[in-house]
Design brief:
Elements: E1 4-12, E2 16-19, H1 20-30, H2 38-41, H3 43-47, E3 52-55, H4 68-94, E4 101-107, H5 117-121, E5 132-136, H6 143-157, E6 162-170, H7 182-190, E7 193-202, E8 208-217, E9 225-230, E10 233-238, H8 242-258, E11 270-273, H9 278-287, H10 296-305, H11 312-323, E12 328-335, E13 339-346
Parallel strand pairs: 4-5, 4-6, 11-12
Antiparallel strand pairs: 1-7, 1-8, 2-3, 6-7, 8-13, 9-10, 12-13
Length: 349
């Protein structure tokens, strides 16, 4: 069986920048006056590991209360722009044409689009009208790894086909200025917006080969992370126990996900992790017995972009790729479910 190769990897962010200092002052202005514990909790901005992030809209747009239709309209406009930009880059890097794409996997959980994003992008990119469309919703932060694994399975099932994987998330659209809670404060300190895209195809070309993927979902963990439907849009569910959970559970989960591939934790040259936050990165280093501070690229991406949900793991992979991937790497991300997702990568000799 031919391996599935990653032929390209492109990332994209929206044009509006917000420093962490600006985020704190904006949140204090918008939320602080109505949230009694804001100042006590404000240290999260200094401890999140974030210096900058990119937003779908200028910061002043977030200062006014927004209805769900207003947020949905911005999601459609900006998410399609980011989809097209990231997909174009990935297609060009791979040396293929949009007409060559046989299937498109789209992962996004921060807005609702029906028709979905890839269908809307077809007005701007010359995909064939018989291209297979696979939109996926609800994966959250795990979506980059799970979506990449799904795209690799499609490529393996359709030898010789060209598969485009795109993930777009606009986390900032979930900002609430009314009835804010602790999860909203943490999210304003942590999340940003972004997109990433890859081209996959069977064969030995490409910068890495996908040789496996796996998931583990824990029972009775639905309240750890996700969305709840509210009159003004999607409200964030974010449990403060995520770092504790990762430190306690991830080593055993990783061993279970690698075992069917004939691998153990010690066989992996590089773990490439979704930086859910500074404390989550610390917890993953502990759980996987890595040297403290060894997840350097994860911290760099978090510092420069914040947690962009699903695309973030691909931003991290891109930095490791540019630095030079070792023979065996494993991507891993945690998301709603509560679920861990992995993708195993081998570098060509």
């Amino acid at each position: 069986m031919k391996p599935v190769s990653l032929l390209s990897l492109a990332t994209e962010t929206p044009p509006y920048h917000l420093s962490q200092a600006q985020a704190l002052e904006t949140a204090r202005d918008l939320i602080g006056k109505d949230f009694a514990d804001f100042e006590r909790l404000s240290s999260v901005y200094a401890n999140a590991g974030v210096s900058n992030r990119q937003l779908a809209m200028p910061v002043d747009w977030y200062r006014s209360p927004r209805s769900f239709p207003e947020r949905a309209a911005v999601y459609l406009d900006v998410a399609v722009d980011l989809f097209v930009a990231a997909a174009q880059k990935a297609i060009e890097q791979a040396g293929v044409r949009a007409q060559d794409v046989d299937a498109i996997v789209t992962v996004s959980s921060t807005g609702i689009a029906t028709p979905s994003l890839e269908a809307r992008a077809m007005a701007r990119l010359p995909f064939r009208n018989d291209v297979q469309r696979v939109p996926v919703f609800g994966l959250g932060c795990a979506g980059g790894a799970t979506g990449l694994g799904l795209a690799s399975k499609l490529a393996r099932a359709m030898p010789g086909s060209t598969i485009l994987f795109v993930t777009v998330e606009l986390c900032s659209l979930a900002l609430r200025t009314d009835h804010a809670d602790k999860a909203d404060i943490v999210s304003t300190a942590l999340f940003g917006d972004g997109a990433a895209a890859c081209i996959l195809r069977t064969g030995t070309d490409g910068f890495a080969h996908i040789t496996g993927n796996a998931e583990k979902t824990w029972n009775e963990t639905l309240d750890i992370m996700g969305w709840r439907a509210e009159p003004t849009g999607l409200g964030v569910v974010l449990n403060r126990a995520i770092p504790v959970f990762a430190r306690r559970e991830m080593r055993q989960a990783m061993a279970e996900m690698l075992a069917p591939q004939g691998l153990g934790i010690d066989d992996v040259d590089q773990f490439i992790c979704h930086p859910g936050g500074a404390k989550v990165v610390d917890a993953l280093e502990d759980a996987l017995s890595l040297n403290q501070g060894s997840l350097i690229k994860e911290r760099e991406v978090l510092y420069d972009h914040g947690n962009m949900s699903a695309p973030t793991i691909l931003f991290v992979l891109d930095r490791y790729r540019r630095a030079g991937l070792p023979p065996l790497s494993v991507l891993n991300a945690l998301g709603p479910g509560f679920t861990a997702s992995t993708v195993t990568l081998r570098c060509p000799a």
